[in-house]
Structure formats: structure tokens, C-alpha cells
Amino acid sequence: MFLPDGERSITTMSSSPERPDELALSWMYVDEKNSKDNERPYFVQHVQFPIQNERQTSGVIIEARIYVESMRKHLSELKSSDGGYAILYHHSFDSIKPLGAQDNDLFHNGFVFPEEMESIGIEQFQDGDTNYALTYIESPSLKWTLVDFVPVEKVLKPIATTRTWFYLSVSLLLCLGVASAWLLYTQIHRPVDRIKDSILAFKKGNYGVRMEVLDQKEFAIAMNGFNDMAEQIQTLIEQVFEEKIRSQDATLKLLQAQIDPHFLYNCLFYIKNMAKVRNTDAVEAMALHLGDYFRYRTKVEQAETTISEELELVDNFLAIHALRKRLLEYSISVAEELKDWSIPRLLVQPIVENAIVHAIEEIDGIGTIRITGENKGGYCRISVEDNGGKLGQTEIDHMVEALEQEEVLTENYGMRNVHQRLRKRYGGRSGLRLSLSSLGGLQVDILWEEMNSYERRG
């Protein structure tokens, strides 16, 4: 700090510097030739008080210096372990390098920044066989450019290492996959194919097919089991062949003869309770509906009926459940033109019974069943809807798959029986269609194709 008298100064240096003849109002670089401090290069800037654009002898002048060795020390801290380092570059002076850096940097080997360049950017430079990535940014106050250059090979080395490990991993996984596929093919796929071929041959009627038992314990058990089963079936088929060919009429009679004992017990128990409390109207209603219901169900000699008679059976069935379960509401609305149509017996009642057992009896509130019917587009459709528990599309898809299965006695046996009888008799798109009902439960559409006028009764 130079005081106004021009004689006195305050300094942190070992010796007092001379009062400057010209002021550096911004940072200015002083090289070794022009240095006033033992040829030590430095950056200098002056500030005078009061602030003036020209030098005033009466003011206080503050001189700040930043020596190059200090900047080289800081540049050394920016040096990376991958062979790159940072320098300060100016096209009019030698570059300022970090401590320990060699003199043969890139700027001595032919790389020169253009004078009109961006203040910040990235360049690529090749020095012999080595490619360098240079990142630079210009300091607005110093007018020098900080340049950081790193060999591209060092930058890409982690990527190359990762890529090498990736290729090795993929190759190893590929080899393991091929080995696993071969083992699966020889130890599992081929035996399974043999079992499949034997089953398909057996299905086509070759009941004498037998499999050669392998050494694998698991497949040996399966193959021995198949051979024993095939031998037993071959023996039994000759004895019960006629019983295995079930006709449509035999299936219908079996369905008609099925009487749920729990249903009958509950009805009789209801009659007993109503008689005990002297509710003769309820006893009479239950007895009449129950009699009409079983009179229709036990007519096994008749394979055909009308839609009107089938709906009367359904009405009796629902009325019985409505007497037992007060919280049951139902409606039947079928076009008059359909009521005289001839259909197979027990086409609608099993669907309604399925809705009662698996939907209505599972809810606590009011149960609702809605039955509608129409003739549209050459197809007759009777829909049965309920408000039972909400079903998801997955459950409905499983139920649709179950309709196509043969000889499986499950809780949906009645629905599957109706579906297959419709398919066998009417063909085409006839059968059951399952979907979500607007009531909140399941909607079952009984669909069959209008064939000829003899299907009607008039």
C-alpha cells in the first residue's frame, strides 16, 4: 500500500517495492524480463483511493500480486491420476504449468488455440500416437485460459474395461445357457417328448403303446405309471366301452335325476318351521312350488320342452329360495315370441342354480337375479345376471376355460353340461358367454342359433 506522500508504503513483502509509474487497473501479467521482484513472474493489479481513471499523486494506491509459483502449486492440486494435468495458457506468454510438469507440453508440440475462440469448450488434439481431450475455460479477470488435458485413452479406459467385462460376462452366460439348454434337452425335453408322444398315440386309440423306462428316477416313476395305467385302461375299455360313450340323452337324464338332498332337506325343514308357527300360507306356497319343481325335474322320458315351461321351472326354483331367503329379488322378462320355442330340458335352471349357490348365498345384503331373453340376428339369447361378489377378468377367463373341459366334476359341472349340449346340438357360435354384469356380479348368456321352423311349438 503506497501512501499519498509518495515516500511511505505498507507491504507484506520482505523488501518494499517501488511506487508504480503506471497503474494496472485490471490483472496484468508481468513475466521474468519485466519483473521488479528478482525476476519472479506474477500477476498484478492496482486500486487507488479515491478511485480515478488516471493516476493521482495524492491518493492511496493498493498493489496486489499473485506470484506464478503460487498458481503452479494450485495447478498441481488439479493434477489427476490418469496422466492429465491443467495449465494456464496465454497466446503471448509461456504457459504456466503445475509443479513437476515437463516443458514438452502440447503447446510446445504444435497445438495452438486460435485467438478468436470460445470462452469455454472442448477440443481434441493428437500428439504423435496419443489423442488428448482438452477442456478449457477463459478467466474474464486474468484473460488467461485454464486448460485441462487428459489422454483420451485414460478417459475411455473405464468404459473399455466395463465393455470387456460385459463381453466376457455375455460369453460366459451364453456358454452356460447353451450347456443348460443341452442338459434340459437331453435330460428333460427328450423324456417329456417321449411321454407326450406316447400320450398322443394313446389318445388316438393306440392302447397298446408302452414306454421304455429310463434310468432317471423321476421319469421312471412317470413312465411306469403310464405303462400301468395304459394296461389297466386297455383292459377296462373292452369291458366298459359302451358306458364311456355317453350320448346327449343319457347326459340329460343324469342331470335331471340329480336331486340335491340339502336342497330338499332345507325345504322340508322350512315347511316344518312354518307349520310349527301356523303359517299355513307359507307352507302351502312352499309345497306347491316344491311339487311343481320336482314334477318337472323327474320327467326323464322327455328330452324337449318349451322356453315357457323351462321358465316356469326357474320361477318355482327362485320362489322356493325367495321363501327361504327373504332378501332375494328376481325378475323374468323374456320376449313372448320366444316362449313357444322348443329347447332341450334343463337349459336355464342349472345356470340359475349356479348363481344362487355361488353368488347369492355368499352375500349378506339383498340378492338380485335378472333373467331376460330376446331373438336377434338369427340367434336366441337368454341372459342370467346376478349381483354376487365382483369377479375379475382372470376369474371369468378360468370359468370360460372350464366350459371346454370334458369329464371333470367340479362346481361348474351344470354350466359346462349346458354349454356342451348347446354346442353339440346347435353348433356355430352356440353355447355360454360369460361377462361382467351391470348388477355387479356375473352375466351368463345362453346363446343358440335359430335353426328351422320345427324348433317352434305353436
Protein traits:
alpha+beta, 15 strands, 458 residues, 41% helix, 10 helices
Care to describe what's here?
There is one protein chain. The chain is of the alpha+beta class and 458 residues long. It has helices at residues 68-77, 152-203, 217-244, 248-257, 261-276, 280-297, 307-324, 349-358, 393-403, 413-426, and strands at residues 28-30, 42-49, 60-67, 85-90, 93-96, 120-127, 130-138, 145-151, 304-306, 328-334, 342-344, 367-376, 379-386, 431-436, 442-449. Strands 5-4-8-7-6 form a 5-stranded antiparallel beta sheet. Strand 7 and strand 8 form a beta hairpin. The mean pLDDT is 80.
Structural topology:
Layout: E1 28-30, E2 42-49, E3 60-67, H1 68-77, E4 85-90, E5 93-96, E6 120-127, E7 130-138, E8 145-151, H2 152-203, H3 217-244, H4 248-257, H5 261-276, H6 280-297, E9 304-306, H7 307-324, E10 328-334, E11 342-344, H8 349-358, E12 367-376, E13 379-386, H9 393-403, H10 413-426, E14 431-436, E15 442-449
Parallel strand pairs: 10-12
Antiparallel strand pairs: 1-2, 2-3, 4-5, 4-8, 6-7, 7-8, 9-11, 12-13, 13-15, 14-15
Helix pairs in contact: 2-3, 5-6, 6-7, 7-8
In short:
It contains ten helices and 15 strands.
What is the oligomeric state here?
single chain
Number of domains: 4
Beta strand count: 15
Spatial separation of the terminal alpha carbons: 126 Å
Question: Secondary-structure element order, as H and E?
Answer: EEEHEEEEEHHHHHEHEEHEEHHEE
Would you identify the CATH H-level superfamily of the largest domain? Answer: Histidine kinase-like ATPase, C-terminal domain
Tell me the name of the CATH class of the largest domain: Alpha Beta
* Rg calc: 49 Å
**Given the C-alpha coordinates, what overall shape results?**
elongated
The proportion of strand residues reads 15-25%
- By CATH, the topology of the largest domain is Heat Shock Protein 90
**Sheet with the most strands, sense and barrel status:** 5 strands, antiparallel
- CATH architectural name of the largest domain: 2-Layer Sandwich
Give the structural class. alpha+beta
**Share of residues in helices:** 40-55%
Strand order of the largest sheet: 5-4-8-7-6
Low-confidence stretches: none
- Number of discrete helical segments: 10
Mean pLDDT: 80
